[in-house]
Amino acid sequence: MPEAQLSTWREELVVDIKGGEADRHEMSTEVLATSLLGFQKFAECVSKKVNGKSCKLNIKVKAGFFEGSFEYKIVLDFFGAVLPLVPQVVQTIREVMELRRFLNGERPANIERGEGQTSIVENNSGNVLVVQNSTINLESNSSTSRAMKKFLNPYMHTQFMRLSYLIESNICQICLLPSH
Predict the structure, then answer these.
(1) Rounded mean pLDDT of 110-125?
(2) In sequence order, what E strands does 31-170 have?
(3) Which end of the chain has the lower number of beta carbons within 10 A, N or C?
(4) Cα–Cα distance measured from residue 134 to residue 38, given in angstroms and rounded to the nearest whole number
(5) In the prediction, which pLDDT does 2 show?
(6) pLDDT grade, residue 5 (50/70/90)?
C-alpha cells in the first residue's frame, strides 16, 4: 500500500520586544524560555482547533536584533495529509490575542450572534468587536488561556508592572512598560 503524501506549510510570526533589557538586545533565559514554551502550547491549541489532531506542528525560532529591541521569529511548520486551513493558524492566534486585549482581562459584557460564523462582543467599556465564533471558543478555553498567559506573563517581572502588546499582520510587538 503506498504511503500517503504529506503536505507542508510554513507560517512565521515576528515577536518584537521593546523596553527594559530588550532595548540592549538582552533577555533573561528563564523569561524567554518560559514565554517560548507558552507560545508553543498556545499554537498547538489553536492548530488542533483549526486543523484537527492529524496535522503535526513543529515550532522553531529565528533570531535577529535591531536597534532598541529584542526581536525573533517564531516559525511554524505544519505537516499533514491535507492542510486546507493552515494559513489561518497565525491569523487565529492574532485574533485570540486581539480579543484578549479588547476585553482587558475581563469577561465580555455581552455577546450577540453575528452574521455567518461571527459574534459581536461588547467589552465593559461599551466598545464592540466582531470576531469569529472559533476565536471566542479559543479565548475562553482554559488550556488556550493558560498557554497564552504563559507566552505573555514571563515578561512581567519585577521591574515592569505593565505589559502592552500589539499584533498586526504577522508581527507581535510586546512593549514592557515601567510602573508609574
Answers:
(1) 93
(2) 56-64, 70-80, 110-113, 118-122, 128-132, 160-168
(3) N
(4) 20
(5) 47
(6) low
Local structure of residue 2 (DSSP, 8 states): P
Mean of pLDDT values over 17-25: 77
Return the ∠ at Cα 170 (arms to 117 and 133), rounded to 5°.
15
**b or e along 78-115 (b: 16 or more beta carbons within 10 Å of the residue's beta carbon)?**
bebeebebbebbbbbbbbbbbbbebbeeeebeeeeeee
| DSSP-derived secondary structure for 72-101 | EEEEEEEEES--SSTTHHHHHHHHHHHHHH
- DSSP β-ladder status, 171-178 and 7-18: parallel
- Name the residue among 170, 180, 169, 166 with its Cα closest to residue 18: 166
Cell of 169: 499582520
